[in-house]
Write a structure and sequence with these properties.
Length: about 120
């Protein structure tokens, strides 16, 4: 991840240890899971989530974000075009991924990724 020659303060990159309990790692895993899911669905479909607390309406996933140490944010839109954000503690994230028809099938499927964190601890 870091160049071995890079020095951050008094620590070199080889001395940095990743904390796998933080939200950024959870989001990385979620993105990998969604990417794998989308590799196995038809080209005219995209990943969405069913989120029971939001009336069980599908939310089309656009991106993920986080606030370390413990908040995961899922950005998306509902099937009727309303903006949606799901904010959860990493210990409470449960997503039911579903394949839904893409709104604009003539355009390539968007790659889902990170939004920058506003966390100060990075």
């Amino acid at each position: 991840m870091f160049n071995d020659a890079l020095t951050l303060g008094k620590l070199t990159s080889s001395e940095l240890i990743r904390d796998y309990k933080l939200a950024d790692y959870a989001v990385e895993c979620l993105i990998n899971i969604v990417d794998e899911f989308e590799q196995n669905i038809q080209d005219n479909q995209q990943a969405a989530i069913k989120y029971i607390q939001y009336g069980n309406q599908p939310i089309l996933i656009e991106s993920f974000g986080y606030y370390n140490p413990h908040l995961v944010i899922i950005y998306g839109t509902t099937s009727d075009g309303n903006e949606a954000r799901v904010v959860q503690h990493i210990s409470q994230v449960n997503l039911c991924l579903i394949a839904v028809e893409r709104v604009h099938p003539e355009k390539p499927r968007r790659k889902i990724g990170f939004l920058p964190s506003n966390s100060e601890d990075e």
